[in-house]
């Protein structure tokens, strides 16, 4: 398991929520956990899909699964279910604060005129 991959505890929560593979759809689905870890790697890094490491399977599989599940609302449904479960268990703290002293703009973004 690579850094950032789903832990066994996280997978135990997520796996039962995933849609069942549809019959008659192409070949056998690969290891779902591996593909989801590939999708999460890509989302975390912001790298191009073609740069998804081989340990997650073919990049195109990760891309197609992500795209298909985005189009049919699977990702939104998973998010709602996981958030609902965490909120019911008291694991979410909705109080958030932002400390603006750590948000710095580049000197050129300060609005000064060019050339002094």
From TrEMBL:
Residues 6-78 form the Insertion element IS402-like domain. InterPro entries: IS402-like_dom, Transposase_6_like. Pfam families: DUF4096. It comes from the Bacteria. This is Insertion element IS402-like domain-containing protein. The lineage of its organism: Bacteria, Bacillati, Actinomycetota, Actinomycetes, Pseudonocardiales.
């Amino acid at each position: 398991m690579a850094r950032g991959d789903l832990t066994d505890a996280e997978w135990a929560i997520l796996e039962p929520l995933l849609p069942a593979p549809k019959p008659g759809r192409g070949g056998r689905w690969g290891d779902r956990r591996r593909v989801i870890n590939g999708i999460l790697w890509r989302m975390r890094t912001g790298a191009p899909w073609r740069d998804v490491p081989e340990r997650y399977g073919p990049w195109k599989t990760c891309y197609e699964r992500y795209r298909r599940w985005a189009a049919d609302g699977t990702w939104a449904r998973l998010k709602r279910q996981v958030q609902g479960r965490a909120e019911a268990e008291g694991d979410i703290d909705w109080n958030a604060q932002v400390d603006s002293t750590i948000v710095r703009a580049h000197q050129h973004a300060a609005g000064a005129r060019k050339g002094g």
